[in-house]
Every structure is written in structure tokens, then in C-alpha cells.
What we know:
Helix 12 links the parallel strand 9 (about 230-235) and strand 10. The longest helix is centred in the last third of the chain and has 24 residues, at about 335-355. This protein has 18 helices and 15 strands. Helix 8 (about 120-130) packs across helix 14 (about 295-310) and helix 10 packs parallel to helix 11 (about 210-225). By secondary structure, it is an alpha+beta fold.
Amino acid sequence: xxxxxxxxxxxxxxxxxxxxxxxxxxxxxxxxxxxxxxxxxxxxxxxxxxxxxxxxxxxxxxxxxxxxxxxxxxxxxxxxxxxxxxxxxxxxxxxxxxxxxxxxxxxxxxxxxxxxxxxxxxxxxxxxxxxxxxxxxxxxxxxxxxxxxxxxxxxxxxxxxxxxxxxxxxxxxxxxxxxxxxxxxxxxxxxxxxxxxxxxxxxxxxxxxxxxxxxxxxxxxxxxxxxxxxxxxxxxxxxxxxxxxxxxxxxxxxxxxxxxxxxxxxxxxxxxxxxxxxxxxxxxxxxxxxxxxxxxxxxxxxxxxxxxxxxxxxxxxxxxxxxxxxxxxxxxxxxxxxxxxxxxxxxxxxxxxxxxxxxxxxxxxxxxxxxxxxxxxxxxxxxxxxxxxxxxxxxxxxxxxxxxxxxxxxxxxxxxxxxxxxxxxxxxxxxxxxxxxx
Length: 438
């Protein structure tokens, strides 16, 4: 039997496409009027005393050990050790929404939700699976894709990750495969509902669509929506902003999909992890957009997200959120980020130049790449795991085998001066494996 608060949220959402996407768990989720909600009320009204939150308070401030406080000279105890609200610090949520719109000007006159804070993008994807993916349901994704998708979707959620070949051609002449994407959509559209996760710049390939490709992808989604298919699109923007070629579309697909048709709901999964070079902060955001979604719909979705967060991790890290707010106020932020991006771009260019000398190599075929942290090889006639092992044990070089055919190389973590030696070793070991029949 549904809790009455869950039923109230479901009734709000029943006149929106979100209702069609909710999983059984998603329909059950709600945010209780329990400790957290009552504590929030007391924070506003309990001026004499607030005996609601299970923290130690001295003179109206959270207690903090001096040995911890000394490492945070610019933050007070509330900004370090107090619990953050379940949906995140309100000021941070507003600041991130402002930044999303600044980075995606198409959104300027569109309505999107206030971002909800999650403890990292991985947690964000997991929360979306809780809300929107039932057992045995299908989530479409590119092939290859980040290996954690399989762990979250299949192992944890017991759903199905159905992949379609992402590319035609290779790094020297290739791009996003609209034909295989179309076929995948056609197959899933037979159910009337399609759920997709698209990741650009992509992990593991390091590819972002061109302006024309982005237009084609969005037009295809709109076409299916116009025919009556309800479509839920998750935009995994973990590496957003790290584009190194002029022809790449600088805006997220979320910006275009957020009001493209009444049958489309888009979710932006992003955060400062890669955009602001704070990998261990474990702070991400979920933002919703959809034509016809009202403030009431967004509020109901937020409550269900809060229910998923409250019932799993409770809330996200306070200190990381507080530091982010301080960071956003720094006038040097964008220049500092630009300097690091130029370092990454320099490494990218060096890799591209090296690969140009190997255009006709028969064993290693680079997948198209133009952005992000990575590039990947498609291995012809050898096993990617065998190549990884050879590189690790014979050359002391670490790489990642995505599957039996794909090897990922993170040029982001290789100094520019070492790139030629690293990639020379990769090709040499691939040739050795081929000669030895492995």
C-alpha cells in the first residue's frame, strides 16, 4: 500500500509524462515529514532552542574539534560539520542553476528545475535508476560506454543496459552513428516508452557531437516523440566543457531537449567533478526539464529525489558544498580553469599528432575523439585485456580494458612529455601480441 505522501506526489505527476517513466520504487518514494522536515521548520522558528537535530551544539553553533577546524581557516563549523539539507545547500543549488544557464544560453528563456545535489554523478545515475528503471526494463546506451553503467543498471537495478554501436568509421574519418541509434530507438519505441543515457564528452571514447550531429540527434528524438513515443533522456555531462575542436557543439543536449516536445523529459547529470577539477568532492547535480512540466511537477520530482537520497545516503557532503560556494565567488576561477584546460588540450593535440603517424595501422584503430579526458582503441585481432596486461607488466604503463576489443587511455593523466613514449609502447606491445597470436 502506498504511503499517502507518495500518493499525493503521484497524483501531481499523473498529468505529466513523468508518470509514465516512474518505476515501482519511484511511485513509492516520498519525502517524509520526519526529522529532516521538522528540523528545517525548527531552524526557522525555534529561536529559543532547537532540540531537533542529532548534533552537538555549543553557543548555537555546531561543535567542531580544533584539529579539524584548523584545516579550514575560511569556513565556520556550520559550513564544515553540520548536516546539509537533503537536496543540498540552497545557495549552491541556485548558483549551479545560474551556471548551467550561463554555459547553455539556449536555456535562457526556458523553464528547468532547481538542481538537486547528489553525492557524485555515480550516485545521481543510481538515484535515477531507483526512480525510473524497473527490473528487466531497458536503458539504451552507446557501445562502448563507461563500465559503471553496467554495474549500476544491471547488477544493482537488475535492469537491462542495451547498447548500440556509437560510431561509424574511426578517429581519422568517423563520427556518431545516427543509423544504429535510429534502429535502437525503433526497437524500443515498440513499447511506447524509451529511456536513454547519452554521455558527451563520452567516456571511454572522448567524443562529443558536432553542431550538425547534435541537431540530428535532437531531431530524431523529436520525431519519435511526435509519433507518440514517450522519451526519458539522461544527459550524463560529467566532462562538460572540455571540448578541443571548433566544430563541437558547446552546449549540452539537455539545453535542446528540455522543451523539445511534450513527450520528452530530459535530465542533466553534472557537477564540478571534472568541470572544476575537484574529483574527490563527490558533489553532483540532477536537473530536470520538459515541455509542459510545471513548478508543481518539478516540486513533486524533487520530493521523490529527496526521498531516494534520504533513504540511502541521507545527504551530501557539507564541506564540499561550502567550498564550492566559496570557489564560485573567486574572480580568478575561470582563468584558472582555462589554464588547466589548455594543458589538457595540449596533451590531446600531442596524441592526435602521434596517431596521424599510425593512420594505416591494422591492429589498433582509434575511435573518434575530440574532447574530455580519454581516447580509446578498437583492437583488431588481439585481446584488449592481454594488451593491458602486457603494458602493465612489461612497460609499467597502466591503461583500462573496457571489454575484449576496447582499450582506454586517459591522456589527461599523462604529462605531455611522456605521451610519445606511452603511445609508442602501446603500438609495440599490440604488434608483439599479434605476432604471438594473442
